[in-house]
Amino acid sequence: MFGKAIACVPASTTNLGPGFDVLGLALKLYSTVEIEETDSGVRIIVHGVDQDKIPTSTDNLAFESANYIFQRVGYQPKGIKLTITNGIPAIRGLGGSGTAILGGLLSANAICGDPFSPDQILDFAVEREGHPDNITASLLGGLTVAVVDKKNVKAVKLSPPEDLRVVIAIPDYTLSTKEAREVLPQNLDLKSAIYNVSRSSLLVAAVATGKLDMLNVAMQDLLHQPHRAKLIPGFEDVCNSAIQAGALSAALSGAGPSIAAYCITSEDQIANVMIDAFAENGLNAEAKILEVDSAGATVSLHLHSSD
Description:
By secondary structure, this protein is of the alpha+beta class. It is 35% helix and 29% strand. The chain has helices at 61-73, 96-111, 118-129, 133-140, 177-182, 190-209, 215-218, 225-228, 235-244, 267-280; strands at 2-14, 23-38, 41-48, 79-86, 143-149, 152-158, 165-171, 249-252, 259-263, 285-291, 298-304.
């Protein structure tokens, strides 16, 4: 019998202002990774959004991650057909690389009979990604707080209020995480450190207690956004426009260039003003109004005969 496993993984927005590399929120926007055992060879197919930005060679992140599982188990399929149906704009701060890594790990793990636990999959994924925020949110769903302790991820999942919506304004250019990290300072003064710790703590408490009116203060940041804003034309204009239109708060989505506005009403108006603000700064953009994904990644296994 040959196996076919399909992993469906939600996008994520991370940092949420002050929670740099720690906080993540899963969104109802998905990519799927399907791995099917075949008689021979390797075939990688990519469909969907930004498919031209995702390699179909063996340096594809999903394939590399699947192969990692096969090597750990000591199992080598005769052949593999890997199909990615991508629904997440690539290199825009929505966790696309994390979904590819998780998709590869989860689907290969299913084909091998689930030898690794979800906690182990999380550790493998974070080791490959380099930071736990996107990966943890996409795997677990909801709002996650994640840290790495001695190569192991320690994470807590919270469930935000059901009426929370996230408006993502996505400009039509890409910004790599590497580039966005290069502009960050290597040292932080004590006052700025306290500022970020206090805001990120308030943010977690606000979500946990449903006090979303606190988000405007809780999402303020001195660690990364002031530096990354220089790479994104109109950053302040887009955020301010969203808040004036009724958003509770606005922040970079991951490393950017996408900007996330958090709201419980006026989603359409917020989306429109964010697009307009980008346009006034010379950028075309689209906006997506998304709910929070509370379930996280899912995977299914199907068996079929070789003929």
